[in-house]
Amino acid sequence: MKVAIVSPLIESVPPKLYGGTERVVSYLCEELVRQGHDVTLFASGDSITRAQLRPMVERSLRLDRSCHNPNSHHVVMVDRIVEAASEFDILHFHLDYCHFPLVRRLGLPSVTTMHGRLDLPEFVHTYSYFHDVPLVSISDAQRAPIPHNHWVATIHHGLPRDLYLFQPDGGSYLAFIGRISPEKRPDRAIAIARRAKMPLKIAAKVDAVDREYFEAQIRPLITGADVEFIGEIDDVAKRDFIGNARAVLFPIDWPEPFGLVMIEAMACGTPVIAWRCGSVPEIMVDGETGYVVQSEDEAVEAVARVHELDRRRCRDVFEQRYTVERMARNYVDVYARQAGSDERLRVA
């Protein structure tokens, strides 16, 4: 199939450091090419891919200090993609909603993967208005705020099998990785680790919008040798960081749409102690790939019992459910259906 993959321009594909959406886009592009599809990636010019790259900006916008309004670049990109739409069997967007009016009015064969939360009131309003545009959810839980939209599939994320190596022996520390923000609850991770009397290492990005929260609420908690703040790390460092941990703490306080860190940990064989929010019960196998908890007390108890889990079983669940081969096959099935049913998008 001739597939256009449309990525956000904030990060490169793959991202240099943090960037869940662009990371998944990269995994999907490379696997579709490996499976023999003709793939064109619309992304920033500093992206690296075996697909045909059509750069929409010179470099990722997060690294471009001259960029003050990323939305303007995305509007131009959408117009350029619509202009080239006849070259492709399917347009696969990863842009939230900015392209909805055009794909709906022009009846373009498309599908949009939703990567973020959908429960905010303005999102519910917008997505409900464009209820007929074909969407893919990354978990069934993600659909809850807009259950009546045109969901064509739920496709869980997948990782390359050899991206993370199985580590049979966990280390002596707990890990928190991802992004520093109130909904990710790094404060809760610190409290759990201290009560469990285990060192905590934090490898996380601090966005500008969360800098004040970090300085006021989190930095004062990072005192003593028991909590180490490493900062943002790349993929190579992440492999050892996750693989050598006794467990990963995922104490979220929001409707997590997927949670890539959970399957990254599974791939390493590292159990996850995660809060029962959003997709967590759907992605985790409680008692096998870690523990799903609902309180700090339960989390501390889970840390004490994490040595009872079989790290090989964590890796087995990853190989059975969360590989990029499975993810790509599921998307190809969606592409085939949508490429032959573009009439459903036409507005009378």
TrEMBL record:
Segments forming domain Glycosyl transferase family: 169-310
Domain (Glycosyltransferase subfamily 4-like N-terminal) ranges: 18-125
Pfam families reported in the protein's UniProt record: Glyco_transf_4, Glycos_transf_1
PANTHER family (UniProt xref): BLL5217 PROTEIN (PTHR12526:SF595), GLYCOSYLTRANSFERASE (PTHR12526)
InterPro entries on file: Glyco_trans_1, Glyco_trans_4-like_N
Name of the featured protein: Glycosyltransferase family 4 protein
Residue spans crossing the bilayer: none
Species of provenance: Pendulispora rubella
